[in-house]
Records
---
Amino acid sequence: MYRISKEKLNDLYAKINETSGLYIPVKRAGEVNYAVWGEGKEVSLETLKTVKSPKSMFFPQTENMMKFKTDGKNIEVIDVREQFDERRPFVLFGVKACDYKAIEVLDKVFLGDPVDSYYKMRRETTTIVTLACSRPEESCFCKVFDVDATAPQGDVTTWLDAEYLYWQANTEKGEALTALVQELLEEGGETEVATQQAQTKAVIERLPFSNLDLSRFTPENLNALFNEKEWEEMSEACLGCGTCTFVCPTCQCFDIRDFKTNEGVIRYRCWDSCMYSDFTLMAHGNSRTTQMQRFRQRFMHKLVYYPSQYDGTYSCVGCGRCVNKCPQNLNIVKVIKTLGGKNND
Amino acid sequence: MIEETLIPKVGVITDVRKDTPDVKTFRVVGTDGKKLFQHMPGQCAMVSVPGVGECMFSITSSPTNEEYMEFSIKKCGCVTEVIHAMEVGQQITVRGPYGKNFPVEEDFKGKDLLFIAGGIGLAPLRSVINYVRHYRDHYGKVVIVYGARSKDDLVDIEEIQTEWMNEPNIEVYLTIDRPQEGWDGHVGFVPAYVKELGLDPNMTAVLCGPPIMIKFTLAGLLELGFEKSRVYTTLELRMKCGVGKCGRCNVGDKFVCKDGPVFRMTELDELPDEY
């Protein structure tokens, strides 16, 4: 294990930036989000939850997929993925354990057959440096989903305390990054990291949602859960604003659309939300006509459908963003408590 | 550069056939004049008009047709309206094939088959019926029941009357909803006709059509003694990617684009009622 004094972090960022783009939590206009690092940017590793998750690094909010040139009756399809060849490798720095787990959840979708090449190209050229949590807050419930906030995976794992950032490489990519910044690192930190981990774990145990019981959310209970009467009451206040889906690190749904430019048609994809009424709208009807159905879809997908499709892995990582951001104070914790059975009382 | 399923191929429309007042069948080949890709009966393709949109359609031609693919498209939305205005020579984009096909080799072989279609529901069935006709001796008895609102709404009626109805070992029963001048065939809704025909319940049945027709026809088949596990149908939901990633056609733990569109009725019973 290595460490680097906090005063030297700027040198670390600058060194990484020599060969790779660096995406890191940056404070701008009072909000912290992942952004490209540059001299003078206000990095905030201490911020527990960026407003948006780092999923946009691999699955951008909007991305151009291809172009079409039309000439009379003829069409030419232009593959715009060549832009990836010229793209610098990236380092995604400061990813929390929950958000890292969320990337693994997205990997199952986008790297599963057939591979999504847009996602894969971004994923392959990125080195992920995770950062352990030392100050979890009340809205965190990652423990419920077997996430260890004190020991995130990734290519490099780091821990931060008042004086140092501690550094441990986990993969070949991580070793390569470590070699690049070696001159800035010194050995040491095992004791400090172990102490911090023990303290943080004790805090996590006491968090109000840390012991939610998920045992009822199984594929066998799919229809029973779907038909629960409580969905009506739980969803009554839902505005269908989609905020939960946009801040969610695992929400994967997207739209594909075209827009016409002077240089032809650009086909792009963008995040979409199952909370919106036109998500399932077809020329001849709509399979989900009420907000209750849309609300139910989102939580059933996270807690039952996705696990049924992917070996029992839940598509929620307990980051708590929806707990903090829903304007109507609706969230997955309430759904788990309401439908999860008596162990959640 | 690795292959990307979302990037389509360019196809050329080589024939347009007006089947009914609102259904046209489009014949499509690649820019090299050859078939764009191979498929199996029941599989679908994403057809797009760049700048307008992309939609999923069943491939109505049989895989045994080596020259081209056909799509029977009903004019009912913004993309299909533009497609309907297209003429021979117009290029479109196509990607696929997507979804699970009818189990023509795995389950249908050697069985007696009953095909029941309503309206544009004939489009996915035409592919499997012509596949079965091509390998006729691999299958038992073939019975086809097809209905539409009027005689003008029967899709592909020319092929049905000149080819299917003239084959000695295929029984074809046509019906229209209301009496009409120039129609001396059966009049009545498909579910009632199916019951009237007193069909052999040991057949494997395939149903395609509007949800209301499927619901009542299935009830009729069960009354006749058909087994649910031997009745197949297809689902249709909004789709964007076609490969189980965009999330739109999700029902329960299935994606219609990837796990469907072909389902056994017993599989549908296990899904939440939201399709």
---
Amino acid sequence: MKRQHVSLPIAVVAAVGSIFIVAPVMALLVRVPWGHLLTELSSQDSVNALRISLMSSLLATLLAVALGVPLAWMLARGPRSLTQFIRPLVTLPLVLPPTVAGLALLALLGRNGVIGSLIFQATGWAMPFTFMAVVAAGVFVGMPFLVLVVESGFAQLPREVEEAAETDGAQANQIFLNVAVPQVRGSIVTGAILAWARALGEFGAALTFAGSMPGITRTLPMQVYVALESNLANAYALSVVLIVVSVTVLYVMRSELMSVFRNA
Amino acid sequence: MNKKIAAVVALVLAITVSWQLHQKQNRDAANAGTKSDSAVTGDINVFAASSLTETFTMLGKEYEASHPGVKVNFTFGSSSTLAQQIVAGAPVDVFASASKKSMDSAGDRMITKADFVMNHVVVAYKAKDQSSIPAGTTAAQLLNGSSVWIQCAHEAPCGAAADKAITAEGVTTQPKSLEPDVKSVLAKLLAGEVDFAIVYHTDVVAHSELSEVEFVDKTAAVTDYSIGQVQGSNPATSDFLTYLKSPHALELYSKAGFGIPGQ
């Protein structure tokens, strides 16, 4: 039996620390209207919000994978003089307050935005208040998680395999698609799930950039916020959905997450 | 390593102790106030509808200047959100709500409730973007076109007033978004992301770049504000409430575009 090296004072502090995180969530579960949970979740507003949230976060995850995997490869194999400047910039949304993220998206893609104004003048279409705006907010806040995880996966690949492929005449594109990507499938799945969970929980960026319209842009977190003022039982019921999803993700991914943070 | 931990612990302790001392000073100040009974002291925490931001901030500063020892702290937000926080036990002395409904939802913690000012919602637009609107155009004509417009969520007082007003007006189009509070609606209008927004008349008065079209049925667009004292409030609260209803304060509300009952 290994010695545990856990003294009583450390155990007490650790207990306080874990209670601080776990107790509020437990308290919330106590208030959930379990008896009519399904009724609350099947109301028109709930179903709409569930649908918007699921579809937008899944679409955001697909886009994050499509754009993020090549970006991660670039960060892992590109010239260090370049990557050391790009990496902090593309991972900025990890620490950026979501409302600021929403403002930034408006500044670029809004009707009066740097690019958005050109699109609006040419086509009369603007992204704010559309479903695509919710998706864009999800990509913006979720993709950095995928990029970090997948880059860490690429960085651990032995270069010999790539060099052998190159000797056999493989092009850079082939090495990326046929040699590197298949070896980091696990990292891509982990990164995609983290990005999806982040996009699913997004509130501030989506509200600022996409607004809150039932059936179009109002996501689960926005519905929880609205329900706080009109129907608390509904807010608690919808919170359960978000908590169950988050706990499941963390539980299923527990060993992958550990290795990501160990190697980061 | 141990030095670093010690430094962090020392910092946490220092912050805790100085906060406790600060709290004690405030309590001492408040107690001194009750004993002498003449001086009004301590912290007065005010929850108020976000449409009152400009006028209340100004009145709070004036009150602090004429009452040394008093500190007025404001939290502005959607009245319905603030009411929920009061129910949940937020440490508040005064609540000023943009509707009687939100005041009622603050529940038993309100020990007094009184009618306050009035406001009404209008269709607002940025004057430079919509310079071609002919005089006499109605709100319904503006909103029923292909324009992009937004309003507050149905739960917020500005949204409830907007719902009544557009129904009375015969507006058939849908807003693009139901924003959580009027400041959020205003922000998107000022950013130029929408053509029109249903906001308070006072918002248009406060922003020179905005113009407005009134709803034809003005009574449908009106919301009645309510103000009251919260259970367990600072003894200084009632004096501050009197100040908020003084002729000087009424003049400020009136200048900001609020309606005064009985005038």
